Amino acid sequence: MSAKQFIRFTTDAGRRYFRFFRFLDCFQKAQECFDSEGGWSDIVFGVGKWSFLGLYMGLESLTIVPGCNGIYPTSWAETFMVEANKFWFYSLVLSVVSGLLRIFWLSRTHPVFRGISTTLGTPSKEYEQEEAEKLRLEARLKGRTLKRRLVTDLFDLFIPGHVTGWMRTGTVWVGIASMVSTTLSSIDVWDRVR
User: What is the pLDDT of residue 111?
Assistant: First the structure.
């Protein structure tokens, strides 16, 4: 085993061990979506997205040892990874549709996107102007976050799409899509931490 293969093997195995029990978190989030007070689309798309992602994580966890570059080869590991990536693809498709619906509803319901400057009427006091500005800023932030998440999910679709063979792309394009989605996801993480 060359040094390059050893580094790749170690990185792949380490990444998978960190994610071993993440499927439980996904199923818990699906339960939270089911119990939420949101609309029907939030419940349906949320439960579907998190359930499919949990199935992906669970199947991926079963292939830790067989996936470690032939240490313990099995006949089923490759099949499990393809099936796991199908579940990831389904999860991303539901996330994209949910994101499109949220952006659509935000543009239809939020006063800033409907061309109304504020729900408070014409601001005559300084307090009302501050409230109107907060409303505009909140709407812009929410819209920007939804759009960034949507673009991230669209780029992520290329990874399981390539593995399953549902999207005919080369490995270079999948690598570029992975870099873009990782960068955009890092921005979301940074925004949550700040």
Answer: 62
143 residue type, one letter: G
Please state, for a pLDDT cut of 70, what percent of the chain lies above it: 82
How far is the C-alpha of 139 from the C-alpha of 111, rounded, in Å? Answer: 9
Is residue 174 within 8 A of residue 159, CB to CB? The reply is yes
CB 158 within 8 A of CB 177: yes
Tally the residues of the chain: 194
Contact present, 87 and 55 (Cβ < 8 Å):
yes
% of the chain exceeding 90 in pLDDT: 46
**123 phi and psi angles, rounded to 5 deg:** -65, 120
Return the closest-CA partner of residue 143 out of 117, 116, 180, 105.
105
- The per-residue pLDDT for range 17-55, each reduced to its tens digit, is 777 788 889 999 999 999 988 888 889 999 999 999 999
What is the average pLDDT across 65-86?
Answer: 77
What letter does residue 187 receive in the DSSP assignment? H
